[in-house]
């Protein structure tokens, strides 16, 4: 990271003018500055309030307040229990093994669960847990420690750096957690840790276009290729990596806020340059605003025609609208919101399809004329009629962005996608599968949702067999991967839907998921994954695995749905892809 000191310049011409003229010029300059500031303020972009005005609906609020407080406390109690179990057997390790009581290193041994869950403890105002985590981060956690393992800049940014930057914002706000002893000292030390980590990650941006390398070698201070399954590197730095949109464009929020906190523009500059090839895409796009992937990181040219909103693509689109919201006065804010609007309009018009109407679609048991609304993936002319749990994040993002930009059609689109994702949670466990497939019906010619029609679409997955056909008849889709990995995306959608519409049904949906988690995923030493959400016992033995995002995201969204909505208002905070809150200034 090269820093160029400004050249010395002679004294400004204004101060070489003598006498009364100098005073007149100073006065004139001040008047011009004030006028310019007034003009900038006048023409700054304005947006409607995002969050539902709960304060003006006192009857609704008072009716549900007791129930919400009890539910929020139940979530908080489970989080405290999980943190205690982690502390007992895996403190300072990346992940606890919830069944056996051991631990595993998955994120370079930087205490992923401890760091990632810090902001959840802060939002829940768990002072004891917060101080314990802060003490470890300040006194023990060492990002300089290197075991020779390559560091993933994507995961390290969203889980580690994002949490540290968010913690500074939360401490500065002074309204979510406290009182914290030695708060100002903690604040300075956490910011210092964030800066050190960002500097260690900076070689990721050392590429011709600033597109991040897949890995960073902390010892050699170099960006490198992703290793193979054995951890070996076979490609030299002279060969360009092929990267996906999420890896390119999922760091802007974290680095923008760090630049503001550290008063150093280099971090924001790196992140803005990193996703410039996507935001100002030079490639012809199959669908306006949607990136054809993967991309050659040295040239910025598309290497294929895969268009999707799930894994590898998701958080780039998520961050476009959140960047515009977090930094509405940034010079590129309008471009970010424009690109998001393009992408979501194309998604609605070109990738959204309705499945076969299920028997159980309506509450009265009668068949509906319309099936659930799904989002397809596109592979060079072929549509994949399979949707994953990860893709369900788009429901909340559509609801958020639709409200922010006053695009009611996109907001309604998001609510319909959320209803689809909720339908996958109506299972024997109350939890949803990793992926599901729908059977495309013949398209109604009057349906304007998809341009071109089903008859012109080539589908990747053909009609199901007898077992799957029975699921389609009952559910409107069939389950292709029945596992549940403690993922947050559907509950995240409930959170945004509730906070923006005020409809308490989304709280009920979230509570049902929480009860499923507590009943089927809770093991002796923490929460674990389950094998089959469709079976009454969850598929038998709980899987001995628990990623840090469960405490960082899933539990945070569950708590926030029932907590006082004014404490973390969507008009004052933006949540990262790992649910770390950043303050809008």
Describe the protein in words.
The chain is of the alpha+beta class and 585 residues long. The protein contains 19 helices and 19 strands. The protein has helices spanning 19-42, 58-90, 112-116, 118-123, 127-139, 153-173, 183-201, 245-248, 252-262, 266-274, 276-279, 314-326, 333-351, 393-404, 408-423, 466-475, 489-501, 505-520, 549-562; strands spanning 95-96, 103-104, 215-217, 222-224, 242-243, 293-296, 302-307, 352-354, 373-375, 377-379, 382-384, 386-388, 435-437, 458-459, 478-481, 522-523, 526-527, 573-575, 581-583. Strand 3 and strand 4 form a beta hairpin. The protein is globular and about 80 Å long. The two termini are 27 Å apart.
Our estimate of the beta-strand percent is 5-15%
Helix content: 40-55%
Spans of at least 5 consecutive residues with low confidence: 1-18, 40-45, 443-454
> Biggest sheet: strands, sense, closure?
6 strands, mixed
Distance between the termini: 27 Å
Helix count equals 19
The strands making up the biggest β-sheet line up spatially as 5-6-7-10-11-14
Number of DSSP E strands: 19
Report the mean per-residue pLDDT as an integer: 89
Sheet/helix structural class: alpha+beta
Radius of gyration: 25 Å
Sum up the overall morphology in one term: globular
Task: Explain the layout of strands and helices.
Elements: H1 19-42, H2 58-90, E1 95-96, E2 103-104, H3 112-116, H4 118-123, H5 127-139, H6 153-173, H7 183-201, E3 215-217, E4 222-224, E5 242-243, H8 245-248, H9 252-262, H10 266-274, H11 276-279, E6 293-296, E7 302-307, H12 314-326, H13 333-351, E8 352-354, E9 373-375, E10 377-379, E11 382-384, E12 386-388, H14 393-404, H15 408-423, E13 435-437, E14 458-459, H16 466-475, E15 478-481, H17 489-501, H18 505-520, E16 522-523, E17 526-527, H19 549-562, E18 573-575, E19 581-583
Parallel strand pairs: 11-14
Antiparallel strand pairs: 1-2, 3-4, 5-6, 6-7, 7-10, 8-9, 10-11, 12-13, 13-15, 16-17, 18-19
């Amino acid at each position: 990271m090269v820093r160029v000191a400004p050249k010395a310049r002679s004294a400004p011409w204004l101060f070489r003018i003598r006498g009364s003229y100098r005073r007149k010029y100073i006065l004139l300059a001040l008047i011009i500055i004030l006028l310019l500031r007034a003009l900038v303020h006048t023409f700054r972009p304005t947006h409607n309030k995002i969050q539902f005005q709960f304060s003006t609906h006192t009857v609704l609020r008072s009716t549900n307040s007791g129930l919400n407080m009890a539910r929020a406390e139940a979530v908080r109690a489970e989080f405290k229990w999980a943190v205690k179990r982690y502390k007992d057997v895996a403190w300072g390790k990346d992940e606890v093994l919830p069944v056996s009581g051991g631990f595993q290193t998955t994120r370079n041994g930087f205490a992923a669960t401890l760091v990632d869950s810090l902001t959840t403890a802060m939002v829940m105002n768990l002072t004891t847990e917060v101080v314990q985590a802060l003490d470890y981060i300040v006194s023990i956690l060492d990002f300089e420690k290197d075991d020779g393992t390559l560091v993933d800049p994507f995961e390290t940014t969203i889980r580690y750096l994002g949490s540290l930057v968010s913690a500074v914002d939360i401490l500065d706000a002074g309204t979510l957690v406290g009182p914290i002893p030695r708060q100002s000292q903690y604040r300075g030390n956490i910011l210092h840790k964030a800066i050190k980590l960002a500097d260690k990650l900076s070689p990721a941006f050392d590429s011709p276009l600033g597109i991040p390398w897949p890995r960073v070698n902390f010892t050699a201070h170099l960006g490198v290729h992703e290793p193979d399954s054995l951890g070996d590197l076979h490609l030299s730095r002279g060969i360009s990596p092929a990267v996906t949109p999420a890896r390119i464009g999922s760091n802007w929020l974290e680095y923008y806020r760090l630049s503001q906190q550290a008063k150093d523009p280099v971090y924001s500059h790196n992140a803005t340059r990193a996703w410039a090839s996507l935001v100002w895409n030079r490639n012809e796009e199959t669908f306006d605003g949607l990136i054809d992937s993967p991309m050659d990181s040295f040239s910025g040219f598309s290497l294929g025609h895969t268009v999707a909103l799930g894994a590898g693509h998701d958080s780039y689109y998520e961050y476009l609208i959140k960047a515009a919201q977090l930094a509405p006065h940034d010079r590129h804010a309008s471009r970010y919101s424009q690109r998001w609007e393009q992408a979501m309009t194309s998604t609605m018009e070109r990738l959204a399809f309705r499945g076969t109407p299920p028997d159980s679609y309506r509450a009265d048991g009668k068949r509906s004329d319309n099936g659930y609304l799904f989002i397809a993936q596109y592979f060079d002319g072929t549509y994949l009629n399979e949707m994953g749990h990860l893709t369900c994040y788009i429901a909340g993002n559509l609801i958020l962005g639709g409200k922010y930009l006053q695009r009611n059609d996109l907001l309604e689109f998001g609510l319909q996608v959320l209803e689809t994702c909720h339908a996958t949670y109506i299972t024997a466990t109350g939890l949803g599968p990793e992926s599901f497939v729908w059977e495309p019906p013949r398209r109604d010619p009057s349906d304007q949702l998809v341009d071109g029609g089903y008859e012109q679409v080539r589908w990747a997955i053909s009609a199901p067999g007898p077992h799957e056909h029975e699921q389609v008849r009952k559910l409107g889709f069939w389950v292709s991967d029945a596992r549940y990995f403690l993922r947050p995306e559907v509950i995240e959608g409930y959170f945004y839907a509730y906070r923006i519409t005020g409809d308490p049904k989304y709280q009920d949906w979230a509570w049902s998921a929480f009860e499923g988690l507590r009943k089927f995923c809770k093991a002796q030493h923490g929460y674990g994954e389950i094998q089959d959400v469709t079976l009454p016992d969850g598929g038998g033995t709980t899987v001995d695995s628990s990623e840090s995002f469960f405490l960082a995201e899933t539990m945070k969204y569950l708590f926030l749905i029932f907590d006082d909505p004014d404490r973390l208002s969507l008009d004052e905070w933006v949540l990262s892809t790992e649910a770390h809150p950043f303050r809008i200034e």
